[in-house]
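Narrative progress, year one. The postdoctoral researcher (J.K.) led the effort to move from monomer predictions toward full complexes, under supervision of the PI. The following entry was the first complex the group processed end to end, covering 339 residues in total.
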Amino acid sequence: MLTLGIETSCDETSVSVTRGRSVLSNAVSSSVHLHKKYGGVVPEIASRLHVEYIVEVLSRALEGSGKSLKDMDLVAVTNGPGLVGALLTGISMAKSLAYELGLPLVGVNHILAHLYSAFLNDKDKPEFPFVGLVVSGGHTALFYCEDVDKQRLLGQTQDDAVGEAFDKVAKILKLGYPGGPVIELAARSSVKKDNRLFPKSSMGKDSLDFSFSGIKTAVLYYVHQTEKRYPEGLPTEMVSDICYAFQESALDVLVDKAFLAASMKGVKHIVIGGGVAANTRLREKFHERSKFSGGIKAFFPKFEYSMDNAAMIGSLGEELYKKGYRSDMYLTAEPNLEI
Ligand code: KG4
Ligand code: ZN
């Protein structure tokens, strides 16, 4: 069957055509360039741009797949969590298409879709049960996953999400938005490569919860102190060293907790998803740790499916549909939708 997937929960407008876990097309337009000067996503701008972009993104997705609307069997759309105005554009489009074409409709949880985005891979696939780690701009959480509709929360952040910490640290260092990619890039040029500058918050030895507000504040104080010596602004090498130290501490906590969860639950597979999963250093750290962990293996989505995308919505939507899940014309945006 062919599924039309639609994603508009934040600043990416995306439409895809998928068949099972194969992606025929995944078109994306982002409004991120318009949010840069504000240092974060402005909901009103994001909502307005979804309305402007969505028809053109839909055309590109159909063209890229070589299919037409008449070929579709299902419409799957993100219905939360996310920005309410942004979500509504995708949901309205999905409902209109489902109604007009007489197709079934399935609402998909954006966080769950991130969790299963590593399945969009022809080769290596994770097996249930596994430990899932979602690392995005709004979420940092560990799950025990038994099936696509059966997962239990093991722990989550008690304050900032890890992506949010990257964004805030980039703001403190005046590096722009979004913070993840710029911090990763700056960290690569670090000469000192000192990873002891900032604390790692473990929340207790056996805890599977996270906290990232402490490290963010530690960076803020460190930068304020250091700026006294450099009133003209911090030298580039120093910014790189700070980025390196922050990134190492923040990412180590993710790796430590995910492996702890896997050994507590006795599972061999860890699946990572969400924007921060695009980070190359995080991938290195997981693969490195796998070598010394008695056969525990980490699975990441392809780079393009780490960021927000409709393909992950469409393919999970199809799996949920096959398990009997259905939405109707009352489907609406749920900004705080939980798993
Ligand atoms: O999943 P996502 O695209 O949107 C949400 O659902 O939140 O995640 C966006 C987050 C942002 O906080 C961004 O800074 C972070 O993912 N991010 C990264 C990288 N690329 C994006 N964080 C660390 N390293 C990266 N390379
Ligand atoms: Zn996301």
